[in-house]
Task: inverse folding
């Protein structure tokens, strides 16, 4: 069976889980705690990062975008990138926006400080970083609003990897209850539509012992 | 004419300049100072980041990897990704490594602190960050050594976007004279081979007034 090494709150792992599910590909999940730097895991990914996908034929793939491009090239029944070349570039621009810009400006400031530091016992949360995360998220929700006022989904007419990349980041932050949905109703409607897809079920069922999700997290009519 | 909005020391811009040159595509360079947040520039890229490529037909492309994937899909005379699917995934894994991991652990700590803070007048260099950058670069040069002891180029038999992504980051740091080449001779030989390619000429000719490059920067026999 195909195996995904992941850590539940990691947005990069959530992105790959969503992409696999959207494509109807079955996989086992194995939890990996990258901060433990387990030798067996470093042997399959020297970057020491999740996600890592091990295919049934033992091929090993790492880096969320490398994995998603591989899935796109190999499993074509369901496309998560459009066919038109300019539309593909637009989709990848937005994937980069959420994987990199949203992650650095929002997710890393909130999830890293509030959850990962506690799990890894690596110091006390940096309140300046948390403040920055809370501040920055508005700008990103406004950008999502701008996009969905002009398009059905973030990158165009169809649900794509751009929606997956964005929803993966937001779902991690939403686990903390830190997404100010009420102030951004159009972004909330987009997220509700994404979250209603069957591919989201497993992610909405995630629950860390001792750190329960807020009640709206898994609620489709939040 | 095709136009690339760039800033000379940005590794993401260098990556696209190298990819365009390797593919033999002509382009004009326009310097953009992203920190000035010029309205005309924000209108073409709301992320406010370089590089941005404007094609002759006025199509606008942003995000270095989105641009490189677009170039790969549209200009096939010279391939910068291998044909085999697993080899493509391996190449993209390494692109992610250098674009993201090397950038965060090395380039951002050194180039941001030593050059960008001076240019943007945004505070004094953070000496802890600079120390971290100097420390972390050894690990990355060791990883390059590991790769080139097993392969002709970083991702396999052929020069690829992985070499471009890595050399783009290293060339930015090398402009500061901060790459400890003498301690990593195999990585140095790989970089010398990359740097001798005609695509590197323009980058090695870069010179910022008041911040001259060290003498070995443009020297092919450094």
Result:
């Amino acid at each position: 069976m195909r195996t995904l090494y992941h850590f539940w709150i990691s947005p990069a792992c959530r992105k790959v889980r969503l992409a696999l599910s959207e494509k109807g590909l079955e996989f086992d999940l194995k939890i990996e705690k990258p901060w433990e730097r387990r030798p067996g895991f470093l042997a399959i990914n020297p970057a020491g990062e999740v996600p890592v996908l091990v295919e049934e034929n033992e091929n090993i793939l790492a880096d969320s975008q490398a994995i998603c491009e591989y899935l796109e090239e190999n499993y074509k029944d369901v496309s998560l990138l459009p066919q038109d070349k300019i539309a593909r570039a637009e989709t990848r621009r937005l994937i980069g926006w959420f994987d990199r810009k949203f992650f650095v400006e929002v997710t890393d400031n909130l999830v890293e400080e509030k959850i990962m530091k506690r799990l890894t016992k690596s110091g006390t949360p940096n309140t300046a970083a948390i403040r920055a995360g809370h501040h920055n998220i508005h700008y990103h929700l406004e950008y999502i609003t701008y996009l969905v006022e002009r398009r059905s989904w973030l990158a165009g007419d169809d649900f794509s990897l751009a929606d997956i990349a964005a929803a993966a980041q937001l779902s991690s932050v939403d686990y903390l209850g830190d997404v100010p949905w009420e102030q951004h109703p159009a972004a909330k409607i987009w997220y509700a539509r994404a979250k209603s897809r069957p591919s989201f079920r497993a992610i909405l069922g995630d629950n860390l012992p001792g750190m329960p999700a807020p009640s709206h997290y898994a609620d489709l009519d939040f």
In short: Chain A touches chain B through 29 residues (CB under 8 Å). Residues 3-74 of chain A form a domain with the Glutaredoxin fold (CATH 3.40.30.10). The beta strands of chain A are 3-6, 28-31, 52-54, 60-62. Residues 207 and 213 of chain A are 6 Å apart (CA to CA).
